[in-house]
Amino acid sequence: MLYLNTFIFPNADMEFDFIIEEKRNCYDSFYPFKILSKNEFERIDFEPITILYGGNGSGKSTALNVIAEKTKINRDSIYNKSNFYSDYVRLCDVYVENDIPDNSRIITSDDVFDYMLNIRNINEGIDEKRDELFEEYLEAKYSSFQMQSIEDYEELKKINNARRRTQSKFVRENLMDNVREYSNGENAFRYFIEKIDENGLYILDEPENSLSPKRQLELVKFIEDSARFLECQFIISTHSPFILAMKGAKIYNLDENPVSIEKWTDLENVQIYYKFFNEHKNEFK
In CATH, what number is assigned to the domain containing residue 52? Predict the structure, then answer.
């Protein structure tokens, strides 16, 4: 499914004209001007899965955030904009194949990190509650309490419950939603699963962060299936060879001047992995 068909960024001439008009004022930076145009990155023609590849400073995240801002899709974390961000977005053009669904969103590393941090805070609260339950269990198990009236019934139930169970089972049953059972990587993966729904445009900024190779492969399968069966469209920035190898993905190499469309096996990062493992292939036998 295609929601976005084409996105056009300002070219160098348009940027030059804008900056000349603003030269009467003193600014330290004209960001995001001059970021994408340095390698003549002016246009994206989208597929159901489109990938932006490039090193740090190549403009991958800038491009994704500009697209998200222009299309007004949802985001969780606040994005730090410059004085000229709105001006730059205004100069961009977007061509839509189908109406962009309301559940569409951009997911950044900050979103995933904040999610894991929230879970950590919840777990710290669980730790405190667990300590309280340990004390409650011991008090209940060895209590000499006797029921005097109907108001004492709940206390009696708790004491009998404690006497029938081990300490660990008592605590587990009273911590009904113990999120600690998932690792950071598992929670990061769960975040993507929870946020990506059917019929949506999803922009993912380096989703491999916090994911093990195994989890990256699981995310790849989830994205491929979502694009194929659930009418989702994805725009992704990544260095990960696992994600770059995604079936049917169209890859823009932002390290090239001008920016080019390339096969994943020709990309520098992938070639480095290939040469490394090829040199050590005998050690795997």
Answer: 3.40.50.300
